[in-house]
Amino acid sequence: MAAAGNLYFLRQVITGQRLLDRAMWRTLFDQAGLEAVALAHPDPTVESTALTLGFPVRPNLRCALPTHCAFPTR
């Protein structure tokens, strides 16, 4: 499923990176004791696939209690 002229997909194959959906990213953040505070996409002139997401994160204060987080921050 490579897009013509876009080396993004080739880089994924060479480096062994995986594309994760939003739900998987949120699960990973939760397990790390973080929460996403926003969702951002890069400018389409820079990243033409529209697959890249950005999540500014902060410590999840709920994780102060070990029962709320898979990997507590303390």
Would you kindly provide a brief summary of this structure?
With 74 residues, this protein is of the alpha+beta class.
Estimate the mean pLDDT confidence. 75
Proportion in helices? 10-25%
Principal-axis shape equals flat
Helices and strands, in order, run as HHEE
Strand order across the biggest sheet?
1-2
Ranges with pLDDT <50 over ≥5 residues? none
Distance between the terminal alpha carbons, to the nearest Å? 42 Å
Structural class: alpha+beta
Note down, in words, how this protein is organized:
This protein is of the alpha+beta class and 74 residues long. The protein has one domain (8-68). The chain is 24% helix and 8% strand. It contains two helices and two strands, in the order ααββ. It has helices at residues 8-15, 22-31, and strands at residues 34-36, 57-59. A two-stranded antiparallel ribbon has the order 1-2. The protein is flat, with a radius of gyration of 16 Å. The model has no long low-confidence stretch (mean pLDDT 75).
Topology:
Blueprint lengths: L7 H8 L6 H10 L2 E3 L20 E3 L15
Antiparallel strand pairs: 1-2
Task: Give keywords.
two-stranded antiparallel sheet, 74 residues, alpha+beta
